[in-house]
Amino acid sequence: MRIVFVAAPLQGHVLPLFALAAACRDAGHDVVIAAGGFPPDVLDLRTADIGGSFNLARSAIRVALRHPRLARAELRGTAGHELVGQLFGRANLALIDPLRALIAQERPDLIVYEPLAEAGAVVAGQLSIPSVLQENTLWPATELFQAVTTSTALTAYDIPAPGLTIAVTPPSLRSAPAADAVMMRPVPFSGGGSVPEWLLTKSDRPRVLVSRSTLDGPNDGDPGPAIIAAAAQVDAEFVLIRPAATANLPATVRAVDRVPINEVLPFASAFVHHSGAGSVLGGLAAGVPQLTTPGAGDRRYNAELLAKRGAGLAVEAKAITAEHLIRLLSDDALRTAAQQVAAEIAAMPDPATVVPRLEKLAGR
């Protein structure tokens, strides 16, 4: 079977597809990932860059000019699905033609796409290829699919519903059951990077990993500056991953370049980050309490969902204090809830178990 996986050419969108793509490859299928902005490690999978004309910033400006009220709400993280649907509806227009050219070359039996890469659904419909929608955020995939496919930019296209939807959000974090969806364990993958030896051992003091978004932009929720300001008041070792600045760090703060966070989280006591869905799910899979910063897009939703589950704290980036960090490391209830969700994730079906469903859909 030949399968094309499609994602918006942004690392936070493509990384969650690698686990299922690798499982399909390991089952003997021919797999290619169509996206862009690929990480250093692609698990020896074939990739195809279809994002040459994709420009999220340009699309965002155009959509914001047409919907200024929604744009302001989006920066606060309170716009729901409406603006993201308009934004990625327009952005996907740049992916349709290069994806269609790739599909003509690959002649796949199946197209798998993430909820903000509806170019995959468009081309699947045009060429009558079975398709699969794979959830890669904490927002239900079907809701994002509806928001993008009904956007102004895509009204001219006849977009079929997916033949199968895969849900990866743990049940206790879902606002409603994933009806008619196939459940699959979210397998954290950070895209590689070299790991210093000391990050793969426990520290004498509690270790707190601190990460930021791979996308720079307004209200991006970088917790780094606040962590640096508060670190001296907390008995812990702080590790800043890809920090925006490294000058004048306190003695208890270390900086590293890109590392595979999924590999080093098991040696950490806590995780502080920008509330990206992949980071939230990665922290939950490792069973560590998290402090997340609400912000633009889905990040407020993610942060508040995690806090509601009791597995983390939601604190605005500029408001983080030593007291928040001390609680993050000492509150047994946060750690217990995080470990409960980790057990829940471990019990979800492995990606390899989903491969037969894809084969059936493709008639193989």
Structure, briefly:
The chain has 364 residues and is an alpha/beta fold. Helix content is 39%, strand content 14%. The protein folds into 2 domains: 2-186 and 348-361, Rossmann fold, CATH 3.40.50; 197-346, Glycogen Phosphorylase B (Rossmann fold, 3-Layer(aba) Sandwich), CATH 3.40.50.2000.
Describe what you observe in this structure:
This protein has 364 residues and is an alpha/beta fold. It folds into 2 domains: 2-186 and 348-361, Glycogen Phosphorylase B (Rossmann fold, 3-Layer(aba) Sandwich), CATH 3.40.50; 197-346, Glycogen Phosphorylase B (Rossmann fold, 3-Layer(aba) Sandwich), CATH 3.40.50. Helices cover 39% and strands 14% of the residues. The strands form 2 sheets. Strands 3-2-1-4-5-6-7 form a 7-stranded parallel beta sheet, sandwiched between helices. The longest helix has 25 residues, at 82-106. The protein starts with a strand and ends with a helix.
